[in-house]
Amino acid sequence: MKADAVRGHLDGLLLAVLEPGPLHGYAIIAAVQRRSGGALELRTGTIYPALNRLERLGLLSSSWESAAGERRRRAYELTDAGRATLAGERAAWTEFTAAIGAVLNPGPQRPGLAT
Amino acid sequence: MSTATRRPDPVEEYVSELTAALHGPAKAKSRLVEEMRGGLLDTAAAHAEDGASEEEAARLAVREFGTVEALAPACQHELTIAQARHTARTVALTAPFLLACWHLSRAGDTPWQALAAHLALIATAAAMLAAATLAATGTLARRLPTPHRLPLAVAWAGTTASAAMAVATLCLTVAAALATNWPLLAAAGILSAATHAIVATSARACRRCVGLNLTKPVRG
Predict the structure, then answer these.
(1) CB-count exposure of residue B89 (10 Å: 0-12, 13-18, 19+)
(2) The organism sits in which domain of life (chain A) (predicted)?
């Protein structure tokens, strides 16, 4: 999928990969790419302002973490509001793909609807 | 030393270009830039682990990241909102000073005092708008879309408050010189001068960020 197509779903992707636990920027990118099998084209830099915005909205919280001898990294974590928003994004996506799928791949016509 | 002939590191070159392109509160900006630099270095390290040379790894990381031109608008948008919130907080925190100033200056009956009292009320209204902005750009923004022009409104509310307080300071100085209860008016004048000084700097920074955002359209 092209970068432009992915952009509209970035918030949902970020929230979803953070569901299992806190991650820092690069680990978030790696998780998105791993889960999508590398099929999603993402300008990796775009996640940083997006994470900033999701934190401002209260969907994520973040803190600096540093391991001994390493540069510090900012780790992000889902908040309760973030979990609720993710559930909403999932429901909306399921509904959307079901509706588009029904049009693109119509099943056998129901008798009452034949013209 | 051979460093003079070495080509600059692509990651550091990218980071300086990004730093130059963005404006906003120092803390928010340095945090964002540090995170993005860390992301580039982590990506480059992953490429190096896969066998790329150090320079090639850094070049690949920068290419995958997206150009500064492409990323700067979204980053600047966040920094502009951070600056608007910073300015809004400053203006909102001056509200008690403004009310004290209004209270002190309306005590007298000279036209100078009346004018200063009106100006303090105008500035108080700006402080209330600023407080509303803090709410609208925070968690409330999950439910309400943040109006595109809100940072502009904050920039001008801050400017109005600071200009009103500058004129109020002048009025109160004149009134204090003419009045018998001059210590009270002088106190009000000091409050208004202090408010002007605090708000003016932040409002100027906010106008600068808004100017950047208006010239660079924000996507997404």
Answers:
(1) middle
(2) Bacteria
Same domain, B102 and B14: no
Structural domain boundaries enclosing B56 = 10-66
pLDDT digits 0-9 by tens, B5-37: 567 899 999 999 999 999 999 999 999 999 999
**CA B152, CA B198: separation in Å to the nearest integer?**
19
Grouping H, G, I as helix, E, B as strand and the rest as coil, residue B4 is: coil
Instruction: Indicate if the pLDDT at residue B101 is higher than 80.
Output: no
CATH topology of domain A3-93: Arc Repressor Mutant, subunit A (1.10.10)
Q: List all residues 6 or more positions away from A76 whose beta carbon is below 8 Å from its beta carbon.
A: A18, A22, A23, A24, A28, A51, A54, A55, A60, A61, A62
The answer to whether residue B204 sits within a structural domain is: yes
Q: Which residues of A touch B133 (CB under 8 A)?
A: none
Chain pair A-B, CB pairs under 8 angstroms: 79
- Span B36-95, pLDDT tens digits: 999 999 999 999 999 999 999 999 999 999 999 999 999 999 999 999 999 888 888 887
Is this complex scored with an ipTM above 0.90? no
pTM of the model: 0.82
Residue A78 is predicted with a pLDDT of 97
